[in-house]
Amino acid sequence: MTPKGFRDIMPEMAAKRRETINIIADALESFGFVPLETPIIEFAETLTGKYGEEEKLIYKFTDRGGRKLALRYDLTVPLARFVVNNLGLLSPTFSRYQIGQAFRGENPQAGRYRELTQFDFDTVGVKSPEEDAKVIAAAISSTREVGLERAKMAINDRENFKDLSIEDIREIDKMYKQTIKPELVEFVKKTKPTENLKKIFSILESKYSLAEGKDFFFDPTLARGLDYYTSTIFELKPNGKPEEQSIGGGGRYDNLIGMFADRPIPAVGFSFGIDRLTEILL
User: Fold this and answer.
1) Are 278 and 20 in contact (CB under 8 A)?
2) In a domain, 3, yes or no
3) Max CA separation in the chain (angstroms)
């Protein structure tokens, strides 16, 4: 037996995971991302105060020396800590990818485990729609390389929710799972892409030869990471349907790294959920 939410990876699945990771790594390197590894264990204070309500899911413990430690919850906060410890890498940008285990004390369900494998890639140091488009294009290209031809990226901008309460935003984010207030349905129907998104869509089409409707689409119901993302947000849908469970997600987070530094440092990134992705591919 294994603890609840933890599992053995059988040979067929392990082989598919390795194959998928190798394909995505090659695709990302063609976009200029370089590999990085960080520890599974961080100081607890490094992780706390970064995830909002989800902080309660962090595995924390005290070692024999009395140090308060934690298993990493994701790969992004460790990246932020790494960047601040190595600011010389920003020249002026740093683009990296990383594969690793993350741990979350949540209730296990289909496709979600307490130990998960993430494949992240991020660019730090650039606040430009050009970089958002590059990350989105790299994710779509990687998805095509592993064989998911129908996958599409759902894209939105947190700016569209600036006049709504957190409660209303959360309700909109669940629009495909439950009945929501009629006035919020009307709000969603009237919502259009922001100027920022229009620029990103134009770059995706002109520079990366991607097409709206075929490779990506505007989703005014998408509202991920309310305590985390600051502008562009996106999720990858395996068959291009907004109501589907995503196989990865990301966006722009221009405040997180600044929590570790004494100056603002913009960033944008994406994370594949390798567990869910390989289950679909098998």
Assistant:
1) yes
2) no
3) 57
pLDDT at residue 88 is higher than 80: no
- Look-up: residue for tokens 């790969």? 75
Q: What is the total count of domains within the chain? A: 1
- Euclidean distance between CA atoms 33 and 138, whole angstroms: 10
Token pair in block for residue 157: 């901008």
pLDDT in tens, 200-243: 999 999 999 999 999 999 999 999 877 789 999 999 999 999 99
Please say whether the beta carbons of 97 and 23 come within 8 A.
no
Question: Considering the domain boundaries, does residue 203 fall inside one?
Answer: yes
Q: Is residue 67 part of a domain?
A: yes
CB atoms within 10 A of CB 108: 14
Q: How far apart are CA 198 and CA 125, in angstroms?
A: 22
Average pLDDT estimate for 55-78: 96
- 5 is a domain residue: no
Question: Which pLDDT score is estimated for 240?
Answer: 94
Q: Give CA–CA dist 275/281, Å, rounded.
A: 10
CA distance 257 to 148: 33
Supply φ then ψ for residue 52, to 5 degrees: 60, -135
pLDDT confidence bin for 111, thresholds 50/70/90: low
In this prediction, residue 158 carries a pLDDT of 95
Domain CATH for 82: 3.30.930.10
Predicted pLDDT of residue 91: 78
Q: What share of the chain is helix, strand, coil (3-state, %, to 5)?
A: 35, 20, 40
Higher pLDDT: 229 or 53? It is 229
User: Which backbone phi and psi does 4 adopt, to 5 degrees?
Assistant: -55, 130
Q: Give residue 71's domain range.
A: 11-281
What integer pLDDT is reported at residue 101 of this predicted model? Answer: 97
